[in-house]
């Protein structure tokens, strides 16, 4: 488990079907982090540029576990813009989730 001090700014966490990659069609928990410094012209999630809610990694993990599926996609915004995302990714992998970024 991660420490309660490890926090990330989250726009939303939801269950849906994966629409991309080799896991297309599989039930997946999407963890959408807030913030992005890139401003790509093709971005379809500008609503995740700001706002969001600070959540501890433990609270994020509890929410992900509660969805009852093994596939998790950590997305954004740009998830790697938040330094604490590495600890979350490590913990998800350590708990045998199938993780994509």
Termini separation (Å)? 20 Å
Q: The biggest beta sheet, please? A: 5 strands, mixed
CATH superfamily: Aldolase class I
Instruction: Please state how the strands of the largest beta sheet are arranged side by side.
Output: 3-1-2-4-5
Number of helices: 2
CATH class: Alpha Beta
Beta-strand residue fraction: 25-35%
**Share of residues in helices:** 10-25%
Mean pLDDT: 93
Description of the molecule:
With 101 residues, this protein is of the alpha/beta class. The chain has one domain (7-100): Aldolase class I (TIM Barrel). 21% of the residues lie in helices and 30% in strands. It is built from 2 helices and 5 strands. It has helices spanning 57-67, 85-94; strands at 7-17, 27-33, 53-56, 71-75, 98-100. It has a 5-stranded mixed sheet. It is globular. 24% of the residues are buried. The model has no long low-confidence stretch (mean pLDDT 93).
Short key terms for the protein model shown above:
alpha/beta; TIM Barrel; 2 helices
Task: Give a topology summary.
Elements lengths: L6 E11 L9 E7 L19 E4 H11 L3 E5 L9 H10 L3 E3 L1
Parallel strand pairs: 2-4, 4-5
Antiparallel strand pairs: 1-2, 1-3
Briefly, what is this?
Helices cover 21% and strands 30% of the residues. It is an alpha/beta fold and 101 residues long.
């Amino acid at each position: 488990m991660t420490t309660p001090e490890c926090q990330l700014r989250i726009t939303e966490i939801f269950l849906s079907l994966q629409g991309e990659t080799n896991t297309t069609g599989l039930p997946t928990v999407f963890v959408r982090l807030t913030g992005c410094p890139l401003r790509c012209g093709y971005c379809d999630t500008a609503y995740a540029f700001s706002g969001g809610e600070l959540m501890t990694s433990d609270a994020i993990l509890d929410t992900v576990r509660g969805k009852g599926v093994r596939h998790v996609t950590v997305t954004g915004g740009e998830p790697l813009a938040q330094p604490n995302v590495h600890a979350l990714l490590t913990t998800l992998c350590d708990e045998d989730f199938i993780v994509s970024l």
